[in-house]
Amino acid sequence: MRIYLFVIFTLQCYTSIRAHPKVTIDEFFNATSFQSVSLSPNGRHLLVYTRKPAWDYNSYDNNLWLYETDGPKKELITTQYAVFMEPKWSPSGDWFFYYGNDKVTANSTDDRELYRHAGNKDSKSQQQIHLYSVTSDELLSIDIGKATPSALTWSDTEWKDVIQYRRRKPNYGSVIQRIDIKRKHGKVSVKVHSIKHVDFIVSDILFIPSEHKMVCISIAQSRLYSIDLTNGQIEQWGKGFQGAVRDYTIRSEGGVFILGQLGTNVHVYIQQSVSKYVCLAPGWHGSYRSISSSKSKQYSSVAFSFSSFERPEEAYFVKHIDGLPWAKPLTHENQLLATRSLPRAKLYRWINHDDNRMIEGILHYPPGKFEHKNLPLFVLIHGGPSDASTNMLHADFYTWAPLAATEGWLVLEPNYRGSTGYGDQFLNEISGQLLSRPGRDILAGVDSLISDGIADPTRLNIGGYSFGGFLTNWLITQTTRFNAALSGAGPLEHISMWGTTDFPVYVNTLLRGFPWEVPEIYEKESIMNKLNKAKTPTLISTGANDIRVPADQSYMFERSLTSLGVPAKLLLFPDEGHALSNNPWHGKIKAREELKWLAKYDHVPLVKAEN
After folding, report:
1. Which of 115, 334, 476, 551 has its CA 20 to 30 A from that of 37?
2. Where is the signal peptide, in residue numbers (predicted)?
3. Neighbours of 186 (CB within 10 A)
4. Rounded CA gap, 411 and 79, in Å?
């Protein structure tokens, strides 16, 4: 007799699950930033403007890449694209222009001497538009005068009528100009004509040949407008959209694609015409940061850059907007960050009981401690105030919450009153209460985190840059509960700030008048007159050449705190303006020293905390 035994063996696979390492400060600051993407009208080529630290040269590689959308081929056009202005394609797609005031050679990677001049805005230097042919690799450099344009676009005629916006003097509004470029017998001639003045400052423009209209974004309001060049009529786009317009591109089918920030996400929206309502295009949750479309007669291919809390930024391409959720990356610049254990983040809401206003922000948890309790808190305040913290991963000294969380901090990024993406009323509620209203929004958020058991009440710290530094300076005069403060390029005194900044209209508008017109508001919102109440050790940082928030404000702040016996240190970054954009070491050193400052003072409250 034969007995057959059927034996089933359970095979257990013991996979070694190895946790991803945490991101280091070196890895964080070595990330590539995507400044813009620009798709050719036929959808065959994509221009990608990237910015990456060149540590050995104390500067940045500002690379302009030319990609083919249907294959892996890419070509480096220049490493010296040292301005924050998007390149633009000609209507035929055979040429594109990029702006710069340095004479550069296409495909040059060795001329590092130009780094010394990158980012320096010398009003006496000749400004240039560089025209590049994708069919012949020909490069033409066109002198356009000594004034610096704020935006440029093509019109509908090849080699003619390039349109630019140039900022008006002294401080507000823009003027549209037409640049006629003629090429004859190998020589290029240029004529500039003024066309129209507008009462807002423009950050970007596009031309719609079929309608003889231009579409543009206003900087202060984050609104989208079109200007009819035949009659000068101005219309506002974005009907029904309560958020902020971050970018846009023209649809070949008519209308526009809009990158709209609503709350903490920036999504793609579609508007078919100025009279139609805006519709959301299904896609990913996160932040679309730059968008461009082809001009096919049938449909628009779309290219964009995107990131989210746990997804590093890359450039993507999709043949039709309906395929947005399945878009594939064309670039792989930040693959290293994708292999690191990044902090998890979530939305957090609270009530400011002064007026029962709902406020929200972003909570970044240390790796491995998502939704843990009683964590040390660092409040990182965005600048602006017309800005917002959003669902993105952008590695720099300004948006460094993921790095701080990696170092063990629970980081709160509050979108206080005055932030974009929450409607006009929310944006304008700081008028006349420039510091006190958003400051109390932030303090209410800290109270809520303590009440919910999320933040350790004995380990509270605060900081920010630009307007975030402004609020930090005010907050340490209101309470001694913070163990340490970080003030980056933060104003201190309203009147001197108004008198020396390059943008005084913003100050006196938010304070509802000039110092002699509303002295009571300047007094009520004063930091200097209450500075004797400050006890928080404060690290101050600023660019030596800052004209937006002049370095004098930081000098006064450091001297005042030192005179009061409050621990203070001032970091001064040479040859830097407000954006700290010339030398990558400066942003990295700033974050490194700020982390050291937090670690030094977090466990050592110098005075008994007061609410």
Report:
1. 115
2. 1-19
3. 5
4. 35
Contact 44, 56 (CB under 8 A): no
When comparing pLDDT for 109 and 24, which is higher? 24
pLDDT for the residue 165: 41
pLDDT digits (tens, 9 = 90+) for 467-500: 999 999 999 999 999 999 999 999 999 999 999 9
Q: Where are the beta strands (DSSP E) in 382-492?
A: 410-415, 455-465, 484-488
pLDDT tens digit sequence for 162-199: 444 444 344 456 666 666 666 666 666 667 666 666 66
- Which tokens go with 352? 């400011």
Per-residue pLDDT reduced to its tens digit, 280-305: 999 999 999 999 998 766 667 999 99
Which domains are delineated in the chain?
25-337 (2.120.10.60), 340-602 (3.40.50.1820)
**pLDDT, tens digit (0-9, with 9 covering 90-100), for 223-280:** 788 777 677 778 888 888 989 999 988 888 888 999 999 999 999 999 998 899 999 9
Confirm if 342 and 310 have CB atoms less than 8 A apart: yes
Q: Could you give phi then psi for residue 235, rounded to 5 degrees?
A: -125, 145
How far is residue 80 from each of residues 40, 87, 255, 611, measured CA to CA in Å?
A: 21, 13, 34, 51
Residue 144's region, left for phi above 0, alpha for psi from -120 to 50, else beta, is alpha
Query: What pLDDT score was predicted for residue 610?
Result: 64
CA distance 32 to 65: 13
pLDDT of residue 244: 92
Asked if 528 and 564 touch (Cβ cutoff 8 Å), the reply is no
Beta-ladder partners of 539: 486, 569
Radius of gyration of the chain (CA): 26
> To 5 degrees, how large is the angle CA 87–CA 88–CA 90?
145
CB atoms within 10 A of CB 49: 26
Q: Is the dihedral of CA 530, 535, 539, 544 positive or negative?
A: positive
Q: How far apart are the C-alpha atoms of 547 and 581, rounded to whole Å?
A: 14
Give 307's Cβ-side CA count (13 Å radius). 25
E strands in 366-522 = 375-381, 410-415, 455-465, 484-488
* CA–CA distance, 155 with 167 (Å, rounded to integer): 20
How many angstroms separate the CA atoms of 488 and 491, rounded? Answer: 9
* Three-state SS annotation for 495-524: HHHHHHCCCHHHHHHHCCCCCCCCHHHHHH
Check if the beta carbon of residue 230 is closer than 8 Å to that of residue 209.
Answer: no
- In sign, the C-alpha dihedral spanning 217, 220, 222, 226 is negative
- Higher pLDDT pick, 119 / 25: 25
Better-scored residue on pLDDT, 170 or 149: 149
Q: Tokens 């070491």 sit at which residue?
A: 585
Where would I find the beta strands (DSSP E) of 40-186? 45-54, 59-68, 74-78, 88-89, 95-100, 127-133, 139-145, 149-153, 162-167, 174-184
Instruction: Kindly state the tokens that stand for 324.
Output: 């947005």
State the first-to-last Cα distance of the chain, in angstroms, to the nearest integer: 89
Using CA atoms, how far apart are residues 500 and 479, in angstroms rounded to an integer? Answer: 29
The DSSP code for 239 is T
Q: For residue 408, which of 343, 336, 460, 457 has the smallest C-alpha distance?
A: 343
pLDDT tens digits along 19-39: 789 999 999 999 999 999 999
